[in-house]
Design goal:
Elements: E1 4-7, H1 9-16, E2 21-23, E3 27-29, E4 36-41, E5 47-53, E6 59-65, H2 74-87, E7 97-102, E8 111-116, E9 119-124, H3 127-131, H4 133-144, E10 148-153, H5 157-160, E11 166-172, E12 178-182, E13 185-189, H6 204-211, E14 217-221, H7 227-232, E15 238-243, H8 246-258, E16 264-268, H9 271-280, E17 285-290, H10 302-319, E18 320-330, H11 337-351, E19 355-361, E20 380-386
Helix pairs in contact: 2-4, 9-10, 10-11
Amino acid sequence: MSSIAIVTSRGAKRLAAGHPWVFRSDLAEAPSEPAGPVRMADPRGQPLGWAWWSPTSEIVLRQVERDGDVSIDRTWWRSRLAHAIARRAPLATVTNACRLVHGEGDGLPALVVDRYDRWLVVQFLSAAIEAQRGVIVDVLQELAGPAGILARNDASVRVREGLSKGVELVAGQVPEEVEVDEHGVHYLAAPWTGQKTGAFLDQRENRVMLRAHARGRALDVFSYHGSFALHLARGAESVTAVDASASALARARANAARNGVGNLECVEADAFEFLRDAAARGERYDVIALDPPALAKNRGSISGALRGYKELNLRAMRLLAPGGVLFTASCSYHVTKPMFLDVVGDAAADSHRPMILRALTGQPLDHPEILTIPETGYLKGMLLENGEHTA
């Protein structure tokens, strides 16, 4: 066996088109190396640079460097991580929490690094990345100077890589809760136990955008810890936060108190049922945030997810007052942007309201989406206005 991974012509063509993944079916000859960085070549022996090698994964190779003459060493890691961190510099003036590394979006496949104030939460999502844990942690400590680093290695994808799942402190100390400052709104993130790595950082700019439209009665559906609701409370007369989780709403109430917000009501309810019952009562809202969890977990669940998105958006549109604004989002990777546009358009048609498209939104600065790597993009949103005339 060679120390170089030989990729089929089809695999090489995929790499040339800008996508870094090589699947097992496109591996012509496996390298003799253990999990970690390996050089690649096509069937003719032409070099294809470096890749992360994960022997048990379906994605056996992830290209990280086109130049096979460089060395994947500490100097390489320092350069790549420093570049990713520098891209986030503009966010320092508006928040103390952001994603420092977004996997393939930053040319570092299977690595996620999130900053929460003075602490970092990392995810090593492939065997190759796990094998380089030591140098990654060392360089992050040098570049970011964190008080502690926590590994949230509880993602199910690690099982497919032949890795164990768990949450592990890898440097310093990390508290159970960290206060996040997001454009002047404060909330608590939970690095050890919270969703994702402790909080939802990817909707930051969308929350600020909707806050600019806050007025009258506002509604935050799938509120979780009340992030949209807290922003809306700055300009609305009243805000209703809806979530099925009592513990999430308890955190939302605590966050409201932390911000001195007194116009927020939390309602524990199923979102579909709440929207249906509110419409039956003839309720109207001036601003609505509709940010459900991923409804499509895989390709087989797409059709059901689309039905769910249509129903949610239709019910929300029927609650929207004339001139009111709705922000609706999908974080389902398997529901593409065209699919989401179509399903929201279908809901608008059935609502019999002239819904005006005010803005299309994607991912923020710290969650870069590479056009040739669809997997780096999952979040899509729309800002809509009910164009009905007021009496």
